[in-house]
Known about the structure:
This protein is an all-beta fold. The protein has one domain (8-131): Virus Head Decoration Protein, Chain: A (Beta Barrel). 0% of the residues lie in helices and 39% in strands. It has no helices and eleven strands. It has a six-stranded antiparallel β-sheet, with no helix packed on it. A five-stranded antiparallel β-sheet has the order 2-6-5-3-4, with no helix packed on it. The radius of gyration is 14 Å and the shape is globular. The N and C termini lie close together (11 Å).
Amino acid sequence: MADLSITAGNVVGSGSDMEHGLIAGGTITAGLAVRKNTSNQIVSASDDSAANAAVYGIALNGASSGQRVSVQKSGNITMGATVAVGKVYVASTSGGIAPVDDIASAEFITVVGVGVTADIMKIGICQSGVAAAGAVA
């Protein structure tokens, strides 16, 4: 499997653990796994280092650099993509979110959430700070 194929216009946040008015440090699309950079701006997360894999949440709207973006940090989110019930999802490259079985050697593991229905994920971020020693699956 590959990264979730997210339709940005179908991403819908819910719950109260959202942060609004954050500043984008690059181009952001709704549904991306995002992190804060050293300037406290929101940028795409990536699994290539512990710092880049430190997911803060999932973007709820699109934004260009310097624009405001909202992020959901926990709870259920309509992903705008098909997710598998009970499947664990992790941060991938360029803000992508992939099934845990796709982790390859040397990729830093951050759990983003678990599929609870065909289109809803329960966000439960766990930043391990460690790279996989080999394929997980």
